[in-house]
Amino acid sequence: MYRTAFHVVAACAAIFLSVEPTSAQNAAVAPEAMMMRLIIQVDFDKDTGQNFGTLFEAVDAQGRVVAGAGFPGLYNTTCRNDRRSLQFYVRPAQDTGRMVPEMLPRFSGDTGVYIGDINGRMYAMGQRVATRVQAWDDAAGRWEVAPEYANAALRNGDGIMHLGDGQLSFRNSRIEYNGQLVLAASEKESLHHAYYAQGHLFFFHDRPGKTKDGAFTRVCALPWVPDQAAPPDLATAICEPTYSLHETTWAWGQLCAKVITVTNWGTVLVFDGEHWTTLRKHDGKSYQVYSMLNYYDRLLLGHYPSGCLFEYDGQTVKATENWPPRIPGVTGYAREAQATALYRGDLYATVWPWAELWRYDRNAGQWLAVGRMFTRPPVTDKVGHPFEAEIVAYNALHGTKNVINDWGQRATSLAVADGALYVGTSNKGGSPRPVDYTFIDDAALEEYGRVWRLRLPGHLSAQVRWVNGPTTFEFVVTAGEMRLLQDGLVLDSTVLDATLASGVRGAKFTLGEGLFGRLAGLAKVLPMP
After folding, report:
1. What range does the domain containing 90 cover?
2. Which terminus of the chain has a smaller tally of CB atoms within 10 A, N or C?
3. What is the value of pTM for the model shown?
4. How many domains does one find in the chain?
5. What pLDDT, on a 0 to 100 scale, did the predictor assign at position 24?
6. What percent of the chain has pLDDT over 90?
7. Residue 515 domain-assigned?
8. CA torsion 146→147→153→157, rounded to 10°?
9. Do 266 and 288 touch, CB atoms closer than 8 A?
10. Are 16 and 517 in contact (CB under 8 A)?
11. First-to-final CA distance of the chain
């Protein structure tokens, strides 16, 4: 996909920016209250499931990022986050303090919840008790049944995504587009953990039973676009058998026109449009990936058991150490980087088993601990997981073999909506508390299966409308407000402190490259009307 990247130096306190693809800088002084007004015309061409990437990024004279906008490319454990959620942020040149989490009302009795976002709202799925997907109504301050999912329960890996003028859904071994069947598993087989990118349907295809009787599990790439004349034929899929039967995945991602997934047995597979390549073979050692996120020119992979974010550069997967680090007082083994997100211009990551939430300040080049998403029990390095010692003692007393890390603490997923960052919590698998686990009191139990909200000034996130052809986004920052528009219609706005807004003074703007990865499309900055 062709892209453009232009640099504009804002020399005045407030600037109207105008850059044509072959022109030099054009600047004019805005009214005194105006800090920034930038109009970008974008043509994303055909929607083939690509990540749309960065619209612009602005840095100050010290090279610190102070503003930007783009579309996150994110898949967290159970689902792909909304790829048409446009984030626009203005961030301080210096860190302005820590976030204060706020717990939302409980929507079910589940001890585990996974969250995502669609159509500008955060939604939540229970694991054992709730049978319907719930959406958070931020204005009303309450949960309601998510209309997008029509009261239906979802398996892990099910979901919906916007595609072109319509909607692609994955549910119960069926793939549909605008309610019309695209592909379905035959009787006694299943399709699961589907993903659409680079003009292909990706999914795991299972036939149960024994290998000698024809059972298999394979990862498939099937060419398909919404306007093709004939339905796709599963027999033409490009498939790669898995190491063992019934393997699955928790994350998909894409970079450099390649699609990557990692099975729960640790096989790393990459599809280049024609062939599957194995970057890592199953070797008997634990190697799992729970999240994939596009971040500048890399794809980040949330890894277990290191608890770190590995990097994929389009060729190889690179292991990292202490990225993020760990909070003081906990062990360094069996750690899981489960969820990632981009919010207000920063990278966020969560880590099991103490539900740590971390923020990476790229300006400062350091990870900052936001905190734990649980308040009890106190952290310890005597055992690896919360309540592990108590379960070991329970097993010894009762002659049982209960899993000793079942009540480890997960910050399962992250989602951005309503200008806020949301975090879901869970025990290991969402199982209910055994009646005689008296060491987990009601106060401790109450923190499992909750959703937290964290909010910082200077962030907008909004669902954009699909346009076949050029569409125009406008980014406005004044001394008291920031505003996001598409084709002249306001998508979102918020109050913005003048001190925070002043960070865009004298900023250098780059079009098409930045936090969210390279722009997938043609873009240019338009002159002011």
Report:
1. 7-72+82-95+459-525
2. C
3. 0.94
4. 1
5. 27
6. 84
7. yes
8. -80
9. yes
10. no
11. 29
User: Got the DSSP string for 382-418?
Assistant: SSSSTTHHHHHHHHHHHT----TTTT-BEEEEEEEET
Kindly report the number of other CB atoms within 10 A of residue 386's CB atom: 26
Span 191-205, average pLDDT: 97
Q: What sections of 270-347 are H helices per DSSP?
A: none
Neighbours of 142 (CB within 10 A): 13
Domain membership flag for residue 236: no
- Looking at residue 31, what DSSP letter applies? P
- Cα 466 off chain centre by: 20
CA dist 355 and 336 (Å) reads 10
Question: What is the Cα–Cα distance from 459 to 270, expressed in whole angstroms?
Answer: 34
Q: What is the pLDDT of residues 327-368, one digit of tens each?
A: 999 999 999 999 999 999 999 999 999 999 999 999 889 999
**Could you identify the residue written with the tokens 């923190």?**
447
Token pair 């690179």 is found at 318
**Measured between alpha carbons, how far is 253 from 270 in angstroms, rounded to an integer?**
10
Q: What is the DSSP letter of 467?
A: -
List pLDDT tens digits, range 256-303.
Answer: 999 999 999 999 999 999 999 999 999 999 999 999 999 999 999 999
- DSSP for residue 296: T
DSSP code of residue 527: P
- Report the side by side order of strands in the sheet with 180-184: 159-163, 166-171, 174-177, 180-184
Give tens-digit pLDDT for 96-152.
667 889 999 999 999 999 999 999 999 999 989 988 899 999 999 999 999 988 767
Residue length of the chain: 529
To which H or E segment does residue 116 belong?
Answer: strand 113-118
Report the share of the chain in percent with pLDDT over 70. Answer: 93
Residue 14 located in a structural domain: yes
400: number of Cβ within 10 Å:
10
How far is residue 184 CA from its own chain's centroid? 27
- 56: in domain: yes
CATH number at residue 39: 2.60.120.200
For residue 357, what are its two tokens? Answer: 């939430």
The SS3 call for residue 122 is: strand
Residue 309, both tokens: 């974010």
d(CA 10, CA 53): 23
> What stretch of H or E contains 443?
helix 442-445
User: What is the chain's mean pLDDT, rounded?
Assistant: 91
Name the amino acid, one letter, at 357: L
Condensed to tens digits (0 to 9), the pLDDT of residues 36-86 reads 999 999 999 999 999 999 999 999 999 999 999 999 999 999 889 999 999
Helix (H, G, I), strand (E, B) or coil at 149: helix
- Whether residue 209 has pLDDT greater than 70: yes
